[in-house]
Write a structure and sequence with these properties.
Chain A has 127 residues and is α/β, with parallel strands linked by helices. Chain A is built from 6 helices and 5 strands, in the order βαβαβααβαβα. Classes of the chains: A alpha/beta (127), B alpha+beta (437).
Chain lengths: 127, 437
């Protein structure tokens, strides 16, 4: 296997993030998690290089869209190099979701199947 | 003043008032002034040509012409003239009427003058727009007619009576048509305003409902997804024969997680049920003496795990045995809602909970040092499905405070917030103390 791919998950749901992390770590990825936008920015600043970024849509203090705008502003190079998946449990027509859509490479429903998540991650990283 | 749709709901029927729309009135009056002046000039020329011998005083004719044209001209350049264009028009009309009757009195045997007088008066009458000007005008014409009939009694026998009847009829119908037209315009405007307001209300309600459905789906999906992923993870571990999969630690962790998420789901569904109960007026509350201090202490101790997870240091100042007459589970719900909000909006910042007894009230305060609430949102956050603009990105149905206010109201208490953006919030609940036995 080549060098481990790094995934960052920014989501305020503690339990779900932990489960995603456990699963993807099991699958051989290096996973970092942040519980909000500010924490996410801090984390990305430290990591410098990320292969995949998964961002939740609704988070306290900073929405997914605002987080991505900040990321574009503060770390444009990192943003360009990183594939970004927006995850949301919101209906398609929701304002928050629509606001986030143009800022991500792919917008998906929150994965409730491990297989779906794994496939999504594999496809995104090879993209 | 209340908005239109609320006034309608009060049982008072909307009655359109016959008033002019200023801009329309100005336009009509200008046209009439110009038409009046021009018609009179043409009439003057025709009479000069066809009746060279008639009684025809130049001064009063010029005065009538000047009044019409100057008024028209002034209405384009002077604000006072614009505001009073209707009065100017009536002044011109009255002067013209007087002038015609004056000429008519001196040319009674000439049919041209008679026809001219009536046409002018009738045209003016048709423009009369309300009952006051109608009465004034008729009074004016009558007085003049009586004066003229005194000069020449033979007039009454010839054209005066039929002429007066024609004038009165035209004046009446002219006024009525005008009033109806204006009333219709006004009622249309009011109807449109009402429809627009209702449309806006509906659109807002629809938007709130859609937003609620979207947020509800998000809120319900998150714990469900977590449970689903957790069970799949467990199955995977079993399949792989992971020796740790069945360890006490891992199993407890899994059960805890599922329980937490199930609690979250229950809480969300409960608040949705509360809303429908409130809407149907079916919330049962048994107000019996209960110890507010104990209720709050219980909630805080049950909440300790959540508080720890959110990193909020807690300061507790609970006076002992503060008794209220209340429904303990419902009061507990209020405390849970307030604490949940504090944790949500002030993650990692200190939260202070206090219970104290005042003169007649038991006072519960939950204070945080979070993002705070803008003053314009202080009332709105207590409404159904409402969350302040700054709170939009926080999870939740926007029902907690609505339900809390309902419960507090049912206890004859009050709930309010003191807050400023960026400076934290303090929610104060006052409940009447239990009467001493």
């Amino acid at each position: 296997m080549t060098a481990q791919k790094t995934i960052v998950i920014v989501d305020d749901s503690y339990d779900l993030t932990r489960l995603y992390k456990d699963f993807l770590t099991d699958e051989g990825y290096t996973v970092h998690t942040a519980r909000g936008g500010l924490e996410g920015l801090e984390l990305l600043r430290k990591l410098r290089s990320v292969d995949l970024l998964i961002v939740d849509c609704l988070m306290p203090r900073m929405t997914g869209a605002n987080f991505l705008r900040e990321l574009n502003r503060q770390m444009p190079l990192l943003r360009k190099r990183t594939y970004v998946i927006g995850m949301s449990g919101l209906v398609r027509e929701s304002e928050d979701r629509m606001e986030m859509e143009p800022l991500v490479d792919q917008m998906v429903e929150k994965a409730s199947e491990l297989e779906t998540l794994l496939q999504l991650v594999r496809e995104s990283i090879s993209a | 003043m209340l908005p239109l749709w609320q006034r309608k709901g009060s049982g008072k029927k909307l009655k359109p008032t016959p008033i002019y729309l200023y801009s329309d009135n100005l336009r009509i009056m200008r046209i009439l002034l110009l038409a009046g002046g021009t018609t009179y000039l043409v009439w003057w020329g025709l009479c000069e040509l066809t009746l060279p011998e008639a009684f025809n005083p130049l001064g009063s004719r010029l005065a009538v012409c000047a009044l019409f044209f100057i008024s028209w001209f002034a209405s384009h350049h002077d604000d006072w003239a614009r505001r009073n264009v209707a009065k100017l028009f009536y002044a011109c009309g009255w002067v013209l009427t007087f002038h015609y009757f004056y000429l008519f009195g001196h040319n009674i045997n000439d049919p041209n003058w008679i026809v001219g007088s009536y046409i002018t008066v009738v045209a003016l009458c048709a423009c009369i727009n309300d009952s006051t000007s109608f009465v004034a005008y008729i009074g004016f014409v009558l007085a003049l007619s009586i004066g003229i009939s005194a000069i020449g009694p033979q007039l009454l026998k010839t054209v005066f009576l039929t002429g007066m009847i024609t004038i009165l009829t035209f004046a009446y119908f002219g006024m009525r048509a005008r009033v109806r037209l204006v009333a219709r315009v006004i009622s249309e405007v009011q109807k449109n305003e009402t429809n627009l307001a209702l449309l806006e209300m509906n659109e807002r309600a629809l938007r709130l409902r859609n937003e609620f459905i979207s947020v509800a789906s998000h809120e319900l999906k998150t714990p469900l997804t977590t449970i689903k992923i957790q069970t799949q993870m467990a199955r995977r571990s079993f399949k792989k024969g992971d020796p740790e999969a069945l360890s006490a630690e891992r199993t407890t962790q899994t059960i805890d997680l599922i329980e937490r998420q199930a609690d979250k789901l229950k809480e969300l569904i409960d608040s949705m049920l509360d809303i429908s109960r409130i809407a149907l007026g079916r919330v049962d509350m048994k107000l019996v003496p209960c110890d507010l201090s104990a209720v709050v202490e219980d909630v805080v101790s049950n909440f300790s795990e959540t508080l720890k997870m959110s990193g909020c240091p807690v300061n507790i100042h609970i006076a002992k045995n503060v008794m209220i007459e209340g429904d303990a589970p419902r009061i507990e719900q209020v405390v849970v809602n307030l604490l949940t909000n504090a944790v949500k909006y002030a993650e990692g910042k200190p939260v202070t909970i206090s219970v104290a007894a005042e003169d007649n009230d038991a006072v519960l305060t939950v204070e945080d040092e979070g993002m705070g609430i803008a003053p314009e949102d202080h009332e709105r956050i207590f409404k159904k499905f409402e969350r302040g603009s700054t709170l939009k990105n926080i999870s939740g149905f926007g029902l907690g405070l609505f339900v809390s206010r309902y419960i507090v109201d049912a206890h004859r208490g009050t709930i309010g917030v003191e807050s400023e953006l960026g400076k934290g919030s303090r929610f104060i609940v006052k409940l009447p103390k239990a009467r001493q036995a």
